[in-house]
């Protein structure tokens, strides 16, 4: 019976490790007009993609960060301007809500963790 536990130890360790990392999640309002294109840049690990109105995208930070750590999220619509924010993710999750126009919803009660956001350091686009 013990031999059944041995293969599951690496799986459990991986699951624990992934859940221990702080996550940043960007939520796009369900009434958004267009699909958004985005770029995640986490310490020069770059991921590109698209997401539709009403959906969310997320990425993981690092368990322990140093002064060199950065996480930036850039996005735009097909014809819209580029936006970029620098995120300092907190555990377990940092939430960013975009309104129907694709702008960050910073209104009171929006759910956006505004205190975890600032202007991008590496990208010249404004939030």
What does this structure look like?
This protein has 127 residues and is α+β, with helices and mostly antiparallel strands. It has a single domain (21-119), classed as Sandwich (Immunoglobulin-like). It has 1 helix and 8 strands; from the N terminus they run αββββββββ. It has one helix at 2-20; strands spanning 23-28, 36-42, 45-51, 56-60, 71-76, 83-87, 93-98, 117-119. The strands form 2 sheets. It has a 5-stranded antiparallel beta sheet with strand order 3-2-5-6-8, with no helix packed on it. Strands 4-1-7 form a 3-stranded mixed beta sheet, with no helix packed on it. The model has no long low-confidence stretch (mean pLDDT 86).
Radius of gyration: 17 Å
Share of helix, binned: 10-25%
| CATH hierarchy class name | Mainly Beta
- Count of strand segments: 8
Shape: globular
Derived structural class: alpha+beta
Count, helices: 1
Using the coordinates shown, work out and report the CATH topology. Answer: Immunoglobulin-like
Report the order of strands and helices. HEEEEEEEE
In what range is the share of β-strand residues?
A: 35-45%
Describe the SSE topology.
Blueprint: H1 2-20, E1 23-28, E2 36-42, E3 45-51, E4 56-60, E5 71-76, E6 83-87, E7 93-98, E8 117-119
Parallel strand pairs: 1-7
Antiparallel strand pairs: 1-4, 2-3, 2-5, 5-6, 6-8
Can you give keywords for this protein?
alpha+beta, 8 strands, 127 residues, Immunoglobulin-like
In short:
The protein has one domain: Sandwich (Immunoglobulin-like).
